Amino acid sequence: MITSNLVRLFVNLFPVYLCLVFFCECSSVQRGRFFDNQAFHFQTLRAINDVKANGAETGEILETIKHIKEGDTESWRFAWERIGNAVLKKAETYSDPKSKGNALLRAHNYLRTAEFFMDPTDPNRESVYKKSTDAFYNGLNALGVQYEHIKVPYGKHYLNANYFPGPAGSENKPLIVFVGGFDSVLEELYFVIVHNAYERGYSVLTYEGPGQGEVIRKQNLPFTYEWEKPNKAVMDTFLENHKKHDKIILVGMSFGGYLGPRAAAFDDRFDGVVAFDVGYDFGAVAENATPGIAIWLQKHEFHRTVEFLSSIKSKFSSTFSWGLKNARWTFNTKDSNETLIAFRKFTLEGVADKIKQDVLILAGTKDHFIPLNQVEKFQKNLKNAKSVQTIIYDEEFGGAEHCQLGAATLWQADFFEWIKKFEPNNTNVKK
């Protein structure tokens, strides 16, 4: 009888225990944050990060987040879609091309942000995505930004790239090739690097591969850990019709901190590679975000129990729920067990020593995705790199977040200082 009562007590209290240990979210916002919910705070930073590239307005963002309930993805989507549509309507009233173009770029950013937390199976997601991308290209056209959209053959599929030629003299500077990460769309890369690279005289080639942007949305083509394959397809196609720059630098953002170095290890056309941020081992990243008990259960093949715990946690944590759904969608996995196995393939262990280029590693002390100890592991295994420079950002200058969101000027200043070493006759930069 005592045993039976204890079992009933455990069954009744276990959900409460899970909530307290894993799932509780604070209700009051800490100073210096937009939301206590880390995913909401980070994605707000992501939207505001584009202000300098005319892709956002601070006042519009601050007004938008007033209407978002902490952790509520429906209110998130509604608020961002509302401001996106409002700015789109504003754009229609402008005859001045610059005013119209900038409004369209802001609308793109807000609608991209609205789509972010939408379920991959939501029938409304496609229309929000299309409205966002249409606004982007219409914005570039209104502004007279020169670009070339390139369809890249990839087996039975195709990848997407945008080439932004720099101003006169850019042919004498390195070509910057830029790829995003786990949840990137091709269009947002313009704000991350292209706008400011052009101001400094550089040409930029951005691309999206399997698991990203339109490729996953329209073709359902999932990520591959062998990123040298899509990267090769992009570079081969691009160089068929464009003169090769003397130097080419590959930059991988976020999950691209794995993708870029992986591609560079198998492609000597690149002279330098940037891990922005560091991405040495994404199996460790996934495990770091998963409760230890779930990892133990997975490794001991209690897969149904892991699924049960995942479903419970998803009900209490919008961040976890989004990450799980996005991973299953972009990796084409059916459950948590397959997803963890898939993540473990994305490691530079046994690959980093094949990288022979100059390497720049960027990292933040408060990165909520990637543990800082991955910097040391990456550095240790770059045994054949031509050079390795690491920059770690702390909270003092606002660059401690993942990919230094909120401090774009900071990381760009360091990146453009580093890339000068590849310019001809440069005697002012240490080799």
Spatial order of the strands in the main sheet? 1-2-4-3-5-6-7-8
Structural class: alpha/beta
Helix content: 40-55%
- Give unreliable regions as ranges: 1-27
Put simply, the count of helices is 17
Biggest sheet character: 8 strands, mixed
Query: How large a portion of the residues is in β-strands, by DSSP E?
Result: 5-15%
Shape: globular
Can you count the beta strands? 8
Please, what is the average pLDDT? Answer: 88
Rg result? 22 Å
Q: Helices and strands, in N-to-C order?
A: HHHHHHEEEHEHHEHEHHHHHEHEH
Give the distance, in angstroms, between the N- and C-terminal Cα atoms: 76 Å
InterPro entries: AB_hydrolase_1, AB_hydrolase_fold, FrsA_esterase
Organism: Leptospira bouyouniensis
Pfam family, one: Abhydrolase_6
Keywords: Hydrolase
What do you see in this structure?
- Residues 176-379 form the AB hydrolase-1 domain.
- 49% of the residues lie in helices and 12% in strands.
- The chain has helices at 2-23, 38-48, 58-65, 73-93, 97-115, 125-143, 189-199, 213-219, 228-241, 256-264, 282-288, 292-299, 303-316, 318-331, 336-344, 373-381, 408-418; strands at residues 148-154, 157-164, 175-179, 204-208, 248-253, 272-276, 358-364, 387-393.
- Helix 16 links the parallel strand 7 and strand 8.
